[in-house]
Amino acid sequence: MRIAAKNPTSLPAGSVCLIDLTGFLHRLAYMTGPHGMDPTKVTSKKTGEPTWGLVGTFNQLNTLAKLGPARIIAFADSSRDGFRQELLPTYKRKSGNPYIRQQLDRLDNCLPHLGIPVLGAREEFPGMEAEDLIAKTVMDFTELVVIVSYDKDLLQLVGPKASHYNPQKKQLVEAASIDEVLRTQFMPTKATLTGPDLAVFLAVTGDETDGVKPIGGIGRATLGWYYEKLPEGLSNPEKIEALAGVDREIKFVNSKPVTADWRQALINLQATDLQAERQRSIQLGHIPDLKPTKEAFHAVLEELTMGSFLKNYDAWFAPFARLNQPPMEMS
To answer: pTM above 0.85?
Structure first.
């Protein structure tokens, strides 16, 4: 068993970072500033636009670039409700918050100057979330990828060519450690777990953050026990069906009624599973390989009146200058 790496000093050589940009912005835009500063009142002195979420995102991206990825690609949620809201009336709705929207639009326009393309911010994928686009990218890429997100849902994509890095926990979860992470943080069990099992876990036990309701009658410990009775090689929908069969059998032996709504679990799974047909059918198109442009991003910071970045701009920009560059040959 391998433990997830804490505080890594670098990322796997040659890896491509896939960023949940909407998740970054939502979390960072509302973090209270120094001395209780109201983040919604931090604006550019030139344009008047909100900038606190931008400050946090730029800082986070700079820290990430210092870990040495080969490329960084950012992904954004559609502003429209999609298939999840159609499946589940309780699923979180898009707010259309102009405070967030304005900053996301700015990131979409300026991150290419750092060598970071942004997908999804211009409604290229209506109703899809950043996690769906990231899942499709993992499917399509042959390179090693590091998914960078605060969102636990994306742990289900961890596998032979994909790891997950949480910037808050500073934790890198790789294929060798995903079993330990899932059993420790989510489902206690003697069964061996892989990334996709997280989608089943969320479909059965629910996800309060996203508005996925539990199916009732099946807690974490019970689900872990049931998991130990499953045959190997099942798809996620087949696991739900098999778990329902285990539940019926155990309740029958103990003369207890089945209270869990396993049909609802299958519906929930359509919302939680990131490797289903909906994601597979996404057409990402060409993802540009951009070169960082030092002067262009300097002009952005001047317009946003971000003096803290401008004071030592050469040193601050240096990690981005190394993105999308061919690796150095060893003599």
So the answer is: yes
